[in-house]
Amino acid sequence: MPIKQPLFTIVLSVCSLFIAASSSAAFGQVSPSQCQSKRVKLQMLGTRGPELLAGDTSASTGYLIWLDNKARVVVEAGSGSLQRFKQSKASINDVDLMLFSHFHVDHSVDFPAYIKGAFFSDRTKDLHVFGPSGTQFVASAEQFVARAINSKNGMYPYLGRYIDTNQHSAYKIKTKNIPWSYGDLSIRQVYSKKGIKIQAVPTHHGPFPSVAYRVELAGCVISFSGDMNGRLGEVPNLAKNSDILVAHYAVPENVQGVARNLHMKPSYIGEMAQQAKVKKLLLTHLMARSLEAKDESLKIIKKQFKGEVILPNDLAVFQP
Ligand SMILES: [Zn+2]
Q1: Which of 139, 195, 246, 275 is the most buried (most CB within 10 A)?
Q2: In the predicted model, what is the mean pLDDT of residues 88-107?
Q3: Average pLDDT, the chain
Q4: What is the pLDDT of residues 159-207, one digit of tens each?
């Protein structure tokens, strides 16, 4: 499965943590040939959407990025994905970052369980959490974390010490909102530290603030669409030359109504992957309606996109 790449030494700049909107001018500078693919793995922690599909053994959305055999980035925390994290044999002590595309249940509900589970570890380094800013009706990343665990009125106030600076805890959770708006589609510089660089761009997921991510490490690029309908059209730019693009295939081509406003059609997935010139396309977040239309949708996607297309199972591991 891994594609053999020539190995080059690359020096990743170590910058301080920041969030700022910026232009995309300096974008796409990591060329695929720089990817030290043996150092990087992407593992599936959950490949389904929110449905209760009878007999289905897959978890809701979740991904894990490994660097040098350490689990460094958790992307999304849908229901059941924490169980997969355990099965992956990852250590919670190694995780630097948790990234959320948005705060729907199937992407985030396992978050407090990660934090409670980490209590029993000897974790001491801070955990950085990123997600989109909110609206009047939808919680931002900072609100999501606070509402989950703050000591005063969180759902689980006994975990409040991890965000309360007045209380002692082995580590702190540092949460930052990624500015989301339909009006400013510039690429956001999210994180650049310890060999991992994260960028994000707002996406259109109906009325729910959502972002797509680009993760660069060891010269490799892995991008995540999150849930989106494709209307803003910014992901091909963000995901340019990705070694792997994870796209959420939640609806069939003939989708109508509300679901159309939330999710992208297979034809757009193909178009996006082709425009971005990604090497490998992983289709996840499957639902009953997309599972049923799988063969037809694959044909539609492959008409547009000439690279490798995979429908992975939970726990599957990919090297860029
Ligand atoms: Zn979803």
Answers
A1: 246
A2: 98
A3: 92
A4: 999 999 999 999 999 999 999 999 999 999 999 999 999 999 999 999 9
4-53 confidence digits (pLDDT tens):
444 444 443 433 344 443 433 344 455 546 999 999 999 999 999 999 99
Q: How far apart are CA 320 and CA 308, in angstroms?
A: 12
282 C-alpha to ligand 1 centroid (Å): 15
| 114 occurs within a structural domain | yes
In a domain, 44, yes or no: yes
Q: Tell how far the Cα of 106 is from the centroid of ligand 1, in angstroms.
A: 5
This prediction's pTM: 0.90
For residue 56, give its domain range. 20-318
What is the number of structural domains in the chain?
Answer: 1
* CA–centroid distance, residue 135 to ligand 1 (Å): 18
The share of the chain scoring above pLDDT 90, in percent, equals 88
CATH of the domain at 167: 3.60.15.10
Task: Rounding to the nearest 10 degrees, give the CA dihedral for residues 253, 257, 260, 266.
Answer: -10
For residue 50, report the distance from its CA to the centre of ligand 1, in Å.
6
Ligand 1 midpoint to CA 8 (Å): 37
Positive or negative torsion for Cα 213, 56, 104, 171? negative
Residue 234 lies in a domain: yes
Report CA(85)–ligand 1 centroid distance (Å).
19
- Tell me the CB-side half-sphere exposure of residue 268, using CA atoms within 13 A: 23
* Ligand 1 centroid from CA 184, angstroms: 23
CA 12, distance to chain mean position in Å, is: 21
The two structure tokens encoding residue 280: 């490998």
Chain-centroid distance, C-alpha 297: 23
pLDDT in tens, 148-171: 999 999 999 999 999 999 999 999
Q: Ligand 1 centroid vs 10 CA: distance in angstroms? A: 35
